[in-house]
Design brief:
Keywords: DNA-binding, Transcription, Transcription regulation. InterPro entries: Homeodomain-like_sf (IPR009057), HTH_TetR (IPR001647), Tet_transcr_reg_TetR-rel_C_sf (IPR036271). The chain has eleven helices and no strands. It is mostly helical. The longest helix has 27 residues.
C-alpha cells in the first residue's frame, strides 16, 4: 500500500526520534541500522528509502537531540534554572532523553564533519537561547555574556559526563553534580555583584 507524503514524513521523524534516544543510550557505534529500524517499528529495508546513510541519520538525530535541550529554555528559563535541572540526578539518570552533548560529545569527535557540524550548529543555538534577552548591550558586554555561557555549558557538560562515568550508587556521582552546580550558580551571581553597590545604596 502506498504511503502518503505526510505519513512518510511522520515515519521519518519517528525514526529520527528513536535513533536520537538509542544513540544517547548506547553510543553511535552501539546501535546498528537493523536494530534501530526494529525499535522504530519498521523493516531494515525501509532505512535506505528514508536516509542516504547511517551518517545522515546520525547528523539528523543529533540535531533533534540538541533541539530538545534548547527547548528547555523556551519558556523563559534563565541560566540558573537551566543549570539546576541540567545538573540534577533526574537528568543524570535519564541518559536516553537527556543532553546529547554530554551523551555523545566524545563519540562526535570521531564522526564525519556532517555530524560535528550538527553539534556545532546545535551548540550555537543553545548559546543563543541562554543569552540575555530583551536587553540592549554593547558589543563588549555581548562578548562577555557569550564567554560566560560557553564557560557555563563546558562546566555543566563536563560535570554530567564525570558523574555518569561513576557507578549509579557512587557518592562521587552525586558529588560532581552538587559541587559543580553550586560553583556555576555562584559564578552567575558574581558578575552582578562585581558591578558594585548601586547609587541609591551609597546614599544615606
Amino acid at each position: 500500500m502506498k504511503v502518503s507524503k505526510a505519513q512518510a514524513q511522520a515515519n521519518r521523524a519517528h525514526v529520527v526520534e528513536t535513533a536520537s534516544q538509542l544513540f544517547r543510550e548506547r553510543g553511535y557505534d552501539g546501535v546498528g541500522v537493523a536494530d534501530l529500524m526494529a525499535a522504530a517499528g519498521f523493516t531494515h529495508g525501509g532505512f535506505y528509502k528514508q536516509f542516504g546513510s547511517k551518517t545522515d541519520l546520525i547528523a539528523e538525530s543529533t540535531a533533534c537531540g540538541i533541539a530538545q535541550t534548547v527547548a528547555l529554555t523556551g519558556e523563559g528559563l534563565d541560566p540558573a534554572e537551566f543549570v539546576r535541572y541540567y545538573l540534577s540526578r533526574e537528568h543524570r539518570d535519564g541518559r536516553s532523553t537527556g543532553c546529547t552533548m554530554a551523551a555523545l560529545g566524545g563519540d562526535a569527535a570521531r564522526q564525519p564533519d556532517a555530524v560535528r557540524a550538527a553539534f556545532s550548529t546545535g551548540i550555537e543555538s543553545l548559546i543563543a537561547a541562554l543569552a540575555p534577552r530583551g536587553e540592549t548591550v554593547s558589543e563588549a558586554d555581548a562578548s562577555q555574556a557569550r564567554a560566560r555561557i560557553i564557560d557555563l555549558l563546558s562546566h555543566a557538560v563536563g560535570a554530567l559526563v564525570m558523574s555518569r562515568a561513576c557507578p549509579d550508587d557512587s557518592p562521587l556521582a552525586d558529588e560532581f553534580l552538587t559541587v559543580c552546580r553550586d560553583a556555576i550558580l555562584g559564578s552567575l551571581v558574581a558578575p552582578q555583584s562585581e558591578a558594585g553597590p548601586s547609587a541609591g545604596s551609597q546614599r544615606g
